């Protein structure tokens, strides 16, 4: 197996695979280094389900239309303006044209699943989920002659100024004429999380209570090294795709099935049995990824999602059953919450509900009055037994601190783009996601910039060859 390819791709998820495929299709020889063993390949992409897609008319698995401006406004709203508009619009437009290419590489799509966050119009779902997508890409890559090495974590990068020279894997030096970095964020690095989040006023380390929804292999080794070598940074190290998940989830690789999707159908309280945020602020696809951060800011980094029988059947059931009780006081006791405070919170909320026409598929007129925080939509009294409670913890999917780039996917050093070092996926997502998230946009970013990075890396090889022959 050659260790001196034209293009070296570091990473094994969606962005890395898109880059490897594009570079190979452009005629470059490609070596892909995946840190994980073969059975754990694919990084966080293996846990994904869909891609957010711009489209101007109904398509095979997408209903109605989702035009560029609406996609942009959705992204602008969740990021609070912390986004590079030019790069965001690049991603949005690319999402309209990538699916035929994905199909050519074996990816299959299906309509939105029932109860899947109201995404039938905006998101194309992968048949078989992210694992099937990753497997399809690996099959296509190997068929095209992309070399793949598993259990090959890159220890360090060798640069000449801002030019890539070589990568080191367990003492082995691998040279290449260009390189694509797509090795994910640093969410699995507990020490870095501690450094980013620090201690709170009680002397606790909040990040010690975080669970990692995806791969344990995203340690941020290359990200940290590139920043130390002078690459330009983008993003806040405490910002991340962070979801409220079941507190019983495993430390790593819990994936989609541990997410709690009933938040907007009930109330959420902290361990002091008090509400702390508007559960009905907006549609769940636009708000589900803020709840991990909200829970992270609560005492002990825990929360409790409370629903009644009226909510059952309206959300994707998680893998763990909720705590069930016939009365609210019994539920408080089973969850370990102060019963008097819990009942005051629920009674105040119930009395404040102004129920109109309940419609969980629309921003309905069911809201609260005279209680703080308000619940602006889908507010109904929690009064119908049985009652259910889910203990929540923050589940980190990926971090947003990354490498600054431009429309060519080049890594920047001192404001100047490298001629042969490119970046894609979670390592640069902070250019588009300064904060917040909307369902499926991570795959949109990874697919768009993975394809750009692979194309540019192959072109850099050709430019280098022309210069050498001049």
| Stretches with pLDDT under 50, minimum 5 residues | none
Instruction: Give the second-level CATH assignment, the architecture of the largest domain.
Output: 3-Layer(bba) Sandwich
Annotation, overall tally of beta strands: 22
What's the N-to-C terminus distance? Answer: 30 Å
Helix content: 25-40%
- Class of the largest domain in CATH? Alpha Beta
- Across the major sheet, the strand order is 6-2-1-10-22-21
| Category by helix and strand content | alpha+beta
What fraction strand? 15-25%
User: How many helices?
Assistant: 12
Task: Explain this structure.
- It is a single chain.
- By secondary structure, the protein is of the alpha+beta class.
- Helices cover 29% and strands 20% of the residues.
- It has helices spanning 14-25, 68-79, 85-95, 99-104, 129-144, 190-197, 221-228, 284-287, 291-296, 328-335, 339-352, 441-469; strands at residues 7-10, 30-33, 50-52, 109-110, 123-126, 147-149, 156-160, 163-169, 172-175, 178-181, 211-212, 233-234, 240-246, 267-270, 303-307, 323-325, 353-354, 367-368, 387-399, 402-403, 410-413, 416-423.
- The strands form 6 sheets. The protein has a 6-stranded mixed β-sheet, covered by helices on one side.
- Helix 2 (68-79) packs across helix 3 (85-95), helix 3 crosses helix 12 (441-469) and helix 10 (328-335) crosses helix 11.
- The relative contact order is 0.19.
């Amino acid at each position: 197996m050659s260790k001196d390819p034209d293009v070296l791709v570091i990473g094994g998820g969606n962005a890395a695979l898109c880059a490897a495929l594009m570079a190979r299709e452009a005629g470059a020889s490609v070596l892909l280094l995946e840190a994980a063993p073969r059975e754990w390949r694919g990084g966080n992409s293996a846990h994904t389900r869909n891609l957010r897609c711009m489209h101007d008319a109904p398509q095979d698995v997408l209903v109605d239309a989702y035009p560029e401006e609406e996609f942009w406004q959705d992204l602008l709203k969740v990021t609070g303006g912390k986004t590079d508009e030019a790069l965001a619009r690049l991603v949005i437009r690319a999402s309209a044209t990538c699916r035929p290419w994905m199909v050519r590489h074996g990816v299959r799509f299906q309509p939105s699943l029932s109860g899947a966050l109201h995404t039938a119009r905006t998101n194309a779902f992968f048949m078989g989920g992210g694992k099937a997508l990753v497997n399809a890409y690996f099959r296509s890559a190997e068929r095209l002659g992309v070399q793949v090495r598993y259990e090959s974590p890159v220890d360090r990068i060798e640069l000449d100024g801002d030019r890539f020279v070589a990568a080191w894997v367990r003492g082995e030096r691998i040279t290449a004429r260009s390189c694509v970095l797509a090795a994910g964020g640093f969410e699995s690095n507990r020490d870095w999380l501690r450094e980013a989040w620090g201690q709170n006023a009680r002397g606790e380390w909040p990040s010690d209570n975080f669970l990692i929804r995806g791969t344990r292999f995203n340690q941020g080794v290359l990200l940290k090294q590139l920043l130390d070598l002078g690459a330009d940074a983008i993003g806040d190290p405490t910002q991340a795709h962070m979801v409220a998940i079941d507190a019983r989830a495993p430390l790593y690789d819990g994936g989609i099935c541990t997410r709690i999707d009933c938040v907007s159908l009930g109330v959420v309280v902290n361990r002091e049995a008090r509400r702390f945020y508007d559960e009905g602020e907006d549609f769940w696809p636009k708000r589900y990824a803020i709840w991990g951060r909200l829970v992270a800011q609560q005492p002990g980094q825990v929360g409790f999602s409370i629903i009644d029988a009226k909510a059952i059947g309206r959300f994707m059931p998680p893998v763990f059953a909720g705590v069930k009780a016939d009365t609210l006081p019994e539920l408080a006791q089973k969850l370990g919450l102060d019963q008097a405070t819990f009942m005051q919170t629920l009674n105040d909320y119930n009395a404040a509900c102004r129920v109109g026409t309940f419609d969980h598929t629309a921003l309905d007129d069911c809201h609260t009055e005279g209680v703080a925080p308000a619940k602006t939509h889908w507010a109904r009294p929690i009064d119908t037994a049985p009652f259910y409670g889910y203990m929540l913890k923050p589940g980190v999917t990926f971090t947003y601190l990354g490498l600054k780039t431009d429309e060519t996917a080049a890594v920047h050093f001192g404001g100047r783009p490298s001629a042969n070092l490119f970046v894609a996926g979670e390592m640069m997502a902070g250019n588009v996601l300064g904060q917040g998230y909307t369902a499926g946009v991570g795959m949109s970013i990874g697919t768009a910039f993975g394809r750009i990075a692979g194309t540019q890396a192959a072109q850099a090889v050709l430019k280098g060859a022309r210069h050498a022959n001049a």
